[in-house]
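Record type: monomer structure entry
Structure origin: computed from sequence
Chain ID: A
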Amino acid sequence: MDAASSGGSPQKRARVDEAAADEATGEAEAAAQLAAADRLMSWLRGHGAFIDGVRVEAGGGAGRRLVAARDLPAGFCFLRLPASCGLSPSSCLGTDVGKAVQKRHQLVEGGSAEGDEAAEDECEKVTHRSVLYAFLMAASQDDSAPFGPFLAHLRLSGVGTPFSWSTQDRARLPRPLNDDLESYESHILGQYQTLFPSLSEAFPELFPNCTEEAWRRAHGLYSSYDFAASPGSSEDDGVLLPLLDCMNHDSEAANVEWGGLSLEESCGARVTRPVREGEELLYSYGCKGNAELVLGYGFAVWDNPHEAVTVRFEFPGDLDSTADAWLAAAQRLSQAAEDWGADQHGLGSASFQLKLEHFDEGMPKPLEEAAAACSSAAASAGAAASSSASQGDGLDRQGAGARPPAAAARALLRRLLLRRGQELMRKADGAVDAEAAPSLSGPAWERYEKALRQRDSVEVGCHPCAVTPEGCAVATRSSQVQVLLAALDCLENSTPKLRRKPKRKAAPKQRQPTTTVPATGGEGKDPADCSNPI
């Protein structure tokens, strides 16, 4: 029997078999997620929670999601959680895992990079947040265990932040983003190395498989799903809230708000507008650029309207910092940075965060002033400058005095923008993606980006999102390059050109679920009480 009569070539049959296996795996994962969600809802109701009018769906590129089980009126409260259902660093301290950590280590406040760094000063100190990571990694997910059903639900989330990506996938990221990742990761792993393997040796029954990979995943779960505590709460760190962790992000199409989050009070969530049956419930993580979204949540938004790019203005180190001209230029840069709200790194250095909205009406004055200050500093070097036209700091010493001041400032700003764009186009290993042209565009890059958009574009609310490592890397570059191109447009044209803007949908389309877990009522709260504003 030839290949044609047996259903095609061996390669084609292999692809078909692989696709069928992937589909079967996806269906099994979705079924497991829904079973865990069902257990979670039963556990929540048993602890006094009220749940009404929503259901969990699983499957698809965006993972689990929360949707309306029926038409919901504006202001309808679909969830109210007792404070005891929230999982926070403080709530872990009284568990077996928390007690074991406290027997061998002294706790310090904080879980940020600063808190982790303070803990590293003395090897026996760990942060409260590290206790939560240990709990997420090691605690039992049995129904009878503290937060057991919630842990089972979280561990099936499929979250994948860059902290748990492979080395190859992380190398796809732009170099500036990868540098941020490595810096933050050193603090995260420092706490792991303080706790393990000593905890596993002292309490083998509590910490049987506490690997570095599991620690990375625990950090990713917390980073992706924590909610900031209410102002004035005794909880410094964020709190993990059951069921609300299923909601996806959209800063423009968000239809949910929540409030009352602390260890002392309950939490409620309601819809802010009428929501149709089958429509996804969304809330905003904040107006974040893709660098923040990728590091914190493991996804990126194509054509992110809130993208930001940091450009650093800095005087060369060989200029005379005692000269009057240098001081005048430094003060000029400092004033421009203050007007912009930029981060200053001492006299003669400031980082400006650029967004698309900054260039809607032309080149902002503070940017022009910053560039003028830097070109003025370069000009003040005069004949003392080297014969090199540039020494890598963006300042053209040789040409600064030959041009009119305004032209020199614009030329310097253009070089800074192009240099920043080429940094974005370089991967962590130094390779350039898609042979990117110095203009930050070009046919090779555009073909590559277009093809990837088609392969990795998941609709969430009114935005297409990238969820694979390659997609996240390219979506981040693409959105940040759009900001730089907008700035370059302003330099080349007195009136900014119309730029490509992402298409928006008025509201998410109604989706008919294929696999769901319904939540229609609960015993913990009177539904009439929960229809009131939070």
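Annotation 1: Confidence is low (pLDDT under 50) at residues 112-123, 383-402, 433-439, 496-534.
Annotation 2: DSSP finds 18 helices and 18 strands in the chain.
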